[in-house]
Design brief:
homopentamer; mainly beta; OB fold (Dihydrolipoamide Acetyltransferase, E2P); 5-stranded antiparallel β-sheet; 6 strands
């Protein structure tokens, strides 16, 4: 799963019927290439600026009760940003 | 899902029978590596220059009514480009 | 799907039985990281130097009539390289 | 599979019911882009600072006994960090 | 599929039962980011320093006779490294 921040939402009138009514959020990754924003479906009610946990791939579709062509979904809203040491030193301070 | 712009289309005479008649668009990603163009099937009638929402992976195939070896499909045409703050500041202005 | 050029082929004597007789091509991506060559199965008879359309992931396996552990397959041979504006300007000239 | 180090854990109150009680670890990749941390489920009891082997994609979900929307899971805890020559020379000393 | 070189192996005592007895090799990619080593299961008996063909994703799991949470597997041992022109010129000499 990836951790990202909700930075915007998608407005689309012409789309597959199965996507009607499904909230689509633009997510900015917290780690790696932070410019590589992507879109995830959301049923949990995540708000802009919140940190979320996103599952990608085929498992995303199975999280929904109906068959929908999505490849990413918010599976959790994160309470507090995880504390991580600088890359390379992570976990070495023990 | 990824947001991209339709920049061209694919013309292929020799291909799998199941791909006959299926529109294949070249998509340029809006975020991340913008040079990494890819191809997505389209049943929604997206035109060149339009912004689209693309689902990738196994879910793409299931969006079609017949079994076709595709791994990306346009699932929505985006009305307005999402407003996103510069990477790193996204969502922090609240 | 990805667009790539056939640049070589793979010769492997010791392999899974289900891969026997299946042509395995080395493909160079046309967009993104052009050094990231990969291997795709081919049933269409693509020749070296030709541009091809490649589907990746689980859908590749289902394109074959028998169960084979592949993750990429040539699904079309491209007639003419798509015309794409330089990255960043793509589609903006309209 | 990827090799990574456990560097933190995720705390999330609002999440899918199927994720309740499942430990979610933040993993830092040992190879490639070390800044691209991600989250994996863990049933093996990996502790912070330990090296783990992580499977990603649809196979992760099937490792669990119940249907859960995850895309990465710890499948092994590594005894000793593998010895690898510097990139480019790996295996060439033979 | 990816072409890579076997550069090490993984030793893990605490792991899923279904992984017991399965050889796990560390593979260095031959193309793209050569530092991005990863782990693949091997039933073919590939040795350190050999070039191998690796399938990734859900198809890897189906190559094994039992259900195992892996996402990459060696599907062939390569006889001779494929001859590829320098990136950008590949196939253009015809």
């Amino acid at each position: 799963m990836m951790i990202g921040k909700v930075v915007s939402k998608v407005v689309s009138t012409r789309k597959y019927d199965s996507l009607q009514g499904l909230k689509l959020l633009v997510i900015q990754p917290c780690y790696g290439d932070k410019g590589a924003c992507f879109v995830a479906a959301d049923e949990l009610g995540a708000g802009e600026g919140e940190l979320v946990l996103v599952s990608t791939g085929d498992t995303a579709k199975h999280a929904l009760s109906k068959n929908t062509p999505i490849d990413a979904i918010v599976v959790g809203i994160i309470d507090v940003e995880p504390t991580i040491d600088a890359a390379g030193d992570a976990g070495d301070k023990r």
